[in-house]
Write a structure and sequence with these properties.
Structural class: alpha+beta
Shape: globular
Radius of gyration: 27 Å
Number of domains: 3
Largest sheet: 7 strands, antiparallel
Helix content: 40-55%
Distance between the termini: 50 Å
Number of helices: 29
Strand content: 5-15%
Number of strands: 12
């Protein structure tokens, strides 16, 4: 720890920084891992490289996953990286989602002439197929396998290889489909999208049949029941915690046409692998395909459930179960047929129906299960603020500019889904893009997530909405859809009102809370925009959500590059007079609150400036990403550090934030850029 702090002091001295800034380096989390990775990147001594990789592997493995793009870049660019290669392959050996993620990162960032990366890509599949980690290797080294075990191992390898390639092909097909879709007239695109999604549902049914009918190994049991979702939103990268896409819902999918591309919003149901394994007793069969239309799972068969396999999260339900001595599966699945229960169960379901006492217990259990289902279907945001969204919607004069609430969409899909009673069953959406380089977008979101984590750890009320961005090739990828939100451009076109008028007439008696949410998110994104020097901030790239929070999207111009490289937007961040009016003017308590959290957030981020520098520096070496291509990375880093004003004390930073906000409010160029976007693209200022 002391050594790390000493090195931080050296950094300050090398940059001619005074002692106004306390550089924070902690021994856990993302703040220390960038230092390890940066040392790994700059070191040319093999023994030291091996030592650093070992530290990441043994002590910071989970944190290291967040920096896979940086680790893959080091692997591509540096020598003596055998230990790093081994570390990545070991992780690929037993994690399907991780393997896909690494494969896409390497293939998206590599040059065609890069033989080293090309060879590594083929090694990923080999490692995954063998499915061996250090621990597994040690376990079987001295073990003599039986003929049955050898057979099962070979079957497992074959299935893992097939599934890996099936998933790669699935996401490649999405890319190809989006590319071809722009060739068709706009009126025909939705029908073509429906056909494509119907075909995907058919393929999922085929995967499920294969998993249930064929003798699949326990190692990959359950993975074949859908396409693995590569979002890093579960507690672990382990396969059991991964979500599988089990069904697309055509009603909530659409084509989002732009001038040059046709991105597609795809909505689908997902279930965690561990649930599909846990409830393996409920074998899904009688799969039917209705003349090429949407596939359905028409029925389920049941086998008695071993009490030892009941999850801890169902402890309370289990206690009631033991009290009434009845099988849990009778209540988890309404549509399943009753079969013979465990021998110790003395009462049949029919007998219980005739017993008033058991009816009362059954009612109690059903209420508990239904409550659990309702809680699982609600997001924290919906619970905390807009539980009465429909009431608000009925009272305001704008109707429903945000569209159908996501909670209602989720409930509708769940109500008819054969998967609705699985604990992890939920609804997700992504926007599939092709002919679009999302590598820079991914880097920006990585940095934004770092800032969000800093704000959270410091308990500062600054709100950033982060979302997943998965690169599937150099020109394609998936962006997680943000529900219950609309661009400011779309909002103004629907309502005909400015933001201040809209907030007061839509949120009504919730206005103060929505106004506070706006201030906290505005301050957060003002810092993001300033620190990352983000441009192209027109109202098509800025969203408002149902809680009143502002959300920035589309980070195609960061670290100083701008549309046409003309550098027209010069304001520190976007702070229009319209925003100020919504905050009740520059003399209001809400505006003072905005400046207060803006300053607190900046001072907190500044403590970790070296972590941001390390992440950007690694990705900028020999990079052809737009924000680095043709530029001197040293100048990019110099300008980035300068925006932290490391030579200023806290009082001077407070004055600086006031000045930055003032310059942003009075920016003529910000207004003119919005006018330009209206004239050329029809985007409302």
């Amino acid at each position: 720890m002391q050594k790390a702090l000493d090195e931080s002091i050296k950094i300050k001295k090398s940059l001619n920084i005074n002692n106004s800034v306390t550089i924070t380096t902690i021994s856990t989390g993302f703040n220390y891992v960038p230092k390890l990775i940066n040392d790994l990147f700059k070191n040319e001594i093999k023994e030291r490289i091996d030592e650093l990789v070992n530290i990441i592997s043994e002590e910071y493995q989970e944190e290291g996953y967040f920096y896979i793009p940086q680790l893959c870049t080091i692997l591509k660019e540096k020598n003596y990286t055998e230990s790093l290669e081994q570390f990545l392959l070991e992780q690929c050996g037993n994690k399907m989602k991780f393997s896909l993620y690494v494969y896409w990162i390497i293939s998206s960032y590599r040059n065609q002439e890069d033989i080293k990366s090309k060879n590594f890509l083929s090694t990923i599949e080999m490692s995954l197929v063998n499915g061996l980690s250090k621990k597994n290797t040690k376990d079987i080294t001295n073990k003599i396998l039986t003929d049955k075990e050898i057979f099962e191992e070979n079957i497992s390898k074959e299935f893992r290889a097939n599934y890996y390639n099936i998933c790669i092909k699935f996401y490649q097909n999405i890319k190809t489909f989006c590319e071809k879709l722009k060739e068709y007239p706009i009126k025909e695109r939705k029908n073509i999208l429906n056909i494509f999604l119907n075909n995907q549902n058919k393929k999922i049914i085929q995967l499920i049949k294969r998993d249930l009918i064929e003798d699949t190994s326990k190692l990959i049991k359950g993975l074949y029941r859908g396409y693995i979702l590569p979002f890093n939103d579960s507690e672990s990268v382990l396969d059991d915690e991964s979500f599988l896409i089990v069904k697309f819902n055509n009603s909530y999918c659409q084509c989002l046409s732009t001038k040059a591309r046709v991105p597609c919003k795809m909505t689908f149901e997902v279930v965690k692998v561990k649930d599909l394994k846990k409830y393996d007793e409920y074998i899904l069969d009688d799969l039917c395909i209705n003349e090429g239309r949407q596939t359905e799972i028409s029925s389920c068969k049941t086998i008695s459930l071993d009490e030892n396999k009941i999850n801890k999260e169902e402890k309370e339900i289990n206690e009631i179960k033991e009290e009434k001595n009845i099988s849990l599966n009778d209540f988890l699945y309404k549509e399943i047929k009753e079969e013979e229960t465990q021998s110790k169960i003395s009462l049949t379901l029919e007998e219980e129906k005739n017993t008033e006492k058991n009816k009362e217990k059954k009612s109690k259990l059903n209420k508990l299960i239904n409550l659990g289902k309702q809680m699982r279907s609600l997001s924290l945001n919906e619970i905390s603020f807009f539980r009465n969204y429909n009431l608000v919607n009925l009272q305001n004069k704008y109707g429903n500019p945000f569209g159908e609430p996501w909670s209602e969409i989720t409930q509708k899909i769940k109500s008819t889904s054969p998967y609705r009673n699985f604990p992890s069953h939920t609804i997700k959406s992504f926007i599939a893009k092709s002919d679009d380089d999302l590598r820079q977008e991914s880097l920006a979101m990585q940095l934004i997530k770092m800032m969000a984590d800093i704000f959270k750890k410091a308990n500062i009320n600054l709100s950033l909405t982060t979302y997943e961005i998965i690169i599937t090739s150099r020109t394609s990828g998936l962006i997680e859809f943000i529900p219950d939100s609309i661009s400011i451009d779309g909002l103004k076109k629907k309502t005909g009102s400015d933001l201040n008028t809209f907030y007061r007439n839509f949120f009504l008696h919730h206005f103060k809370e929505a106004q506070k949410n706006f201030a906290e998110s505005l301050a957060a994104y003002s810092l993001v925009t300033y620190i990352l020097n983000i441009k192209d901030r027109h109202n098509g790239n800025i969203m408002i959500d149902i809680q009143g929070k502002i959300i920035h999207i589309d980070f195609g111009f960061i670290l100083g590059i701008s549309p046409g490289n003309v550098g027209f937007e010069t304001a520190p961040f976007k702070m229009t007079k319209e925003y100020v009016n919504l905050l009740d003017g520059i003399n209001s308590e809400m505006y003072k609150y905005f400046l207060s959290i803006l300053t607190k957030g900046f001072l907190e981020i500044r403590k970790y400036f070296d972590s941001f520098v390390k992440v950007i520096e690694i990705m900028g070496i020999k990079s052809d990403m737009p924000c680095f291509a043709g530029r001197d990375i040293n100048i990019v880093i110099r300008d980035f550090i300068a925006r932290f004003h490391l030579d200023k004390n806290e009082k001077e930073i407070n004055e600086l934030m006031v000045l930055l906000a003032k310059n942003s409010i009075n920016s003529w160029r910000t207004y003119q850029y919005d006018v330009f976007q209206q004239l050329t693209n029809g985007i409302k200022p």
